[in-house]
Design a protein that fits this description.
The protein is mainly alpha-helical and about 55 residues long. The protein has one domain. About 65% of the residues lie in helices and about 0% in strands. The chain is globular and about 35 Å long.
Length: about 55
């Protein structure tokens, strides 16, 4: 599936690219009106959901 997310995030420069990576890798739909802070909150929430789903399997 390509590089691990952390390595990919380490190679980018700027918030817009971060949001693009989040959209592509996690399927989060972010509009242009979403701030980086909101995007990171959604990323955290999505990551916690993934962790929780892996614990129950």
């Amino acid at each position: 599936m390509g590089e691990p997310l952390i390595e990919e995030l380490g190679k980018i420069n700027g918030g817009d690219l971060l949001l693009d990576v989040m959209e592509r890798r996690l399927g989060i739909e972010l509009g242009t009106d979403v701030s980086v802070g909101d995007g990171l909150q959604r990323l955290r929430s999505e990551c916690l959901n993934v962790v929780d789903s892996q614990r129950t399997t």
